[in-house]
Amino acid sequence: MSQSPNRLLGVFLGVIYVLDGIYGYFLTSDTAFLSTAGPKVLDLFETNPLHNLVHLVVGLALLTAALVGPRVSKAMNTTLGVIFLLVGVVGILIVGGNNPLNILAVNGADNVLNFATAVVLLCVGVGADRTIASAKTA
Fold first, then answer.
1. pLDDT tens per residue, range 79-99
2. What is the DSSP string of 3-44?
3. Beta carbons of 61 and 80 less than 8 angstroms apart
4. Given its phi and psi angles, is residue 21 left (phi above 0), alpha (psi -120 to 50 degrees) or beta?
5. 115/72 Cα distance (integer angstroms)
6. Which pLDDT score, from 0 to 100, does residue 137 have?
7. How far apart are CA 74 and CA 6, in angstroms?
8. CA distance 11 to 62
9. CA–CA separation, 16 and 131 (whole Å)
10. Averaged over 43-61, what is the pLDDT?
């Protein structure tokens, strides 16, 4: 595997999200799938089974893209960066109380993590591996 920043970030975040998704299922064994509130991972991030499933899918997508190649990893990092940014904005609007729209059991700490993940994915996705994009057009 090349030393592409996009591939390295994909593997790093992919492993973290997969492990978090798996660990979350141990915490949410008695939580409803679409619960608006649930137990906290690391006493910070609220979760439910759907939230864990999303983390598993995101982690596997990042890992798969990183293993395929730098161009695919760059596209996946950028795409997921935009999605995390949108999820962070929506999260601000639905956090608080038992909002029925909060089907991922998102809390304030999740929003901070979503925005941080978005920034990192977008910075690396847009800024790194520029020769890949220019080599394709040349």
1. 999 999 999 999 999 987 788
2. --HHHHHHHHHHHHHHHHHHHHHHH-TTS-TT-SS--EETTT
3. yes
4. alpha
5. 22
6. 55
7. 5
8. 7
9. 28
10. 96
